[in-house]
Amino acid sequence: MWWQNLGISPLEALWVVLSAIGIYAAFFVLIRTAGQRALASWSTLDKAIVIAFGSVLGRVVLGYTPTLAAGVVALTTMFVLFRLEAVLRRTRRGAYFSSKPILLMAGDQVRPAGLKAARIVEDELYFKLRQAGIRNFSEVALAVLEPTGDVSVLRRGELIDPVLLRRIEDRDDIPAHLLMPD
C-alpha cells in the first residue's frame, strides 16, 4: 500500500493524532493548574526543562520509531488544535480558554491577594518593577499579571481608561484618582 512508503499506517496515524490531542489537553490542563506564573519569566533552568519536555512530548506523540509522516501528522494535529482553540476563544464560552489579568499593585499598594492568586512572591514583583524602570512605589499606577504571563506596569501621570481594565476582577480596588471618569 502507498502508506507503507510513508513509514506510517492509517492506524499508526490515528494513534499519532490521538496522542497529540492527549498531550495538548494535558498541557492545557497543567498550564491552567500551574497558573499564569508558569509563563511569566523563565530562568536558564526553566528553559532547559522546557527543552527536555519538548523531547519527551515529541517521543510520546510520535511513538517509538518516529517517521517523517508521523511528524507531519503530529504537527498538523497540533496546528489544528491551536487554531481550534483560537476560534473557541472568540466565542461566548471562550473565557474558559484564557486566564484573567490579576491585579498585583493598585497605586503604591502591593496586593497580597493578587500575588497569592498569581503565585508570585514580592521579590519577583520588585524585579518586574525594576525592569519597567520604576524607582519607587509612588511611580506605580498599576501592576497587572497579564494572561500571557507578562507583568504590565502602568506609571502614574496619565489617567487610565477603565475600558483597559475590563477583565480585571478587582478593578474596584484601583484608586479612583488614577482612572478617567466613565
Automatic annotation (TrEMBL):
Domain of life per record: Bacteria
Domain YetF C-terminal: 96-164
Spans traversing the lipid bilayer: 13-32, 68-88
Protein keywords: Cell membrane, Membrane, Transmembrane, Transmembrane helix
Principal location listed in the UniProt entry: membrane
Subcellular localization: Cell membrane
Membrane topology: Multi-pass membrane protein
GO cellular component labels: plasma membrane
Similarity-based family: Belongs to the UPF0702 family.
The protein's name: DUF421 domain-containing protein
Organism: Arthrobacter jiangjiafuii
